[in-house]
Design goal:
One of its GO terms (molecular function) is heme binding. Keywords: Iron, Metal-binding, Monooxygenase, Oxidoreductase. This is Cytochrome P450 monooxygenase TRI4. Its cofactor is heme. By secondary structure, the protein is mainly α. It has 14 helices and no strands. It is globular and about 55 Å long. The protein starts with a helix and ends with a helix.
Length: 254
């Protein structure tokens, strides 16, 4: 665990937190948002984003244009996670190439963590660089800096919105993950912009890459095994009232 904990150089994120009690406290700030009950409440958002992806795939089916499922699924998951965590979604499904360059940069950064496990000083050196210098050194670093700044700005927007609501006597919204985290009864240091930006990068990057990979792998094996595809179609047909209607999550869980 100690070997892997600092490979993302996000010391304030729950993934990198070694002390047991502190780790549990940080996890408790957002873990309830990913329970089964919480996911069921997300069903309208999930359907909305999946429908957008299906519309994109349908348009490419008509033109015969090949689609990278890695890019498509990563865009899908990124849009869902960011819409759930923040006021503003990435909206990558609306980008013609699913923001291919950004997603491939994320992949390269993720692969680089294997080296960073053995040479942790590398990531700390890169993080110590001024932003202008990091942008100049390598295009991937430029995008990484922009991403980190973006997470900090998202957290700042949530924080400012809450402050304005409190000043006006309005009730603060609790719809987004980071709205709830800022409302948690924890020391103020646990709700700093830097710490929550680290947590944001941890949640978004971890959920995005792993889920997209699982979806891509499942899709391949279903299509590569026709008997599995036939059985899946038969099973799904019993869960909805028609081919155009998606089965509800409660039915899929069974």
């Amino acid at each position: 665990m100690f070997f892997q904990a600092d490979m993302f150089a996000l010391p304030s994120g729950s993934f990198s937190t070694i002390p047991h009690d502190l780790h549990r406290r940080r996890r408790a700030m957002f873990s309830h948002h990913f329970s089964t009950a919480a996911v069921h409440k997300l069903e309208p958002l999930l359907r909305e984003k999946v429908d957008l992806l299906l519309a994109r795939l349908e348009s490419t089916r008509e033109t015969g244009e090949p689609v990278s499922l890695w890019h498509a699924y990563t865009a899908l998951v990124a849009d869902i996670i960011t819409a759930y965590c923040f006021p503003e979604s990435y909206n990558l499904l609306a980008v013609p190439d699913y923001s291919k360059q950004m997603l491939e940069t994320f992949t390269r950064i993720s692969l680089g963590t294997h080296m960073i496990k053995h040479c942790p000083w590398m990531i700390h050196l890169l993080r110590a660089l001024p932003q202008w210098l990091a942008r100049w050194v390598h295009p991937d670093l430029e995008l990484l800096v922009d991403m980190q700044v973006g997470f900090a700005n998202q957290v700042l927007k949530v924080k400012e919105k809450r402050a304005n609501s409190n000043a006006n006597g309005d009730e603060s919204e609790q719809g987004h993950v980071f709205d709830s985290m800022l409302n948690a009864e924890v020391p103020e240091s646990e709700k700093s912009i830097e710490r929550l930006a680290h947590e944001a990068q941890t949640v978004v990057m971890a959920g995005m890459m792993t889920t997209a990979h699982s979806l891509m792998t499942i899709t391949y094996h279903v299509l590569a095994n026709p008997h599995v595809l036939v059985r899946l179609i038969e099973k799904l047909s019993t869960m909805s009232s028609g081919p155009a209607e998606a089965a509800p999550l409660s039915a899929l869980e069974k």
